[in-house]
Amino acid sequence: xxxxxxxxxxxxxxxxxxxxxxxxxxxxxxxxxxxxxxxxxxxxxxxxxxxxxxxxxxxxxxxxxxxxxxxxxxxxxxxxxxxxxxxxxxxxxxxxxxxxxxxxxxxxxxxxxxxxxxxxxxxxxxxxxxxxxxxxxxxxxxxxxxxxxxxxxxxxxxxxxxxxxxxxxxxxxxxxxxxxxxxxxxxxxxxxxxxxxxxxxxxxxxxxx
Length: 209
What we know:
Radius of gyration: 18 Å
Structural class: alpha+beta
Number of helices: 6
Strand order of the largest sheet: 1-2-5
């Protein structure tokens, strides 16, 4: 449903956010009366991109892979609040949430702090980040993921508002070494995305990107 005055996620944004209308060709936007809106946070390191090898343990990669097999390749995701993420011994009854927590711990509290501490120092992480949305997609040989930006999809379906993350990461996990394929990212950010549109909507679809 459309947001209203009593339940408007754009009404109480933290300091430093900028808000403007967004036209990206997202199909469900047509069911809302008003335009799509985007909330852009004060990005700590704009136009930055980093790659890290062996960012997570083989044990965790195996757990992620095995769980994806158990759910027959269906997408799954969980939200981990910063208070829980900061506790290395936090225990959940939900297996998916436990795996998501482990991923957050090994990547943001582990690999980033060891390999790229200037990217997100621990004190800044604890102060500025309210939580982590972990989303898992399974891919077979030959599969691809269309051009897109990461945002809180639930909020957009509910309020037609796009909330961009302070940081976004893609983690590749497999039981075997991954060969071939291509991972690409554009440092032009939202400006670049608005030229191409949702999954390449303005350039003829994903093949036109």
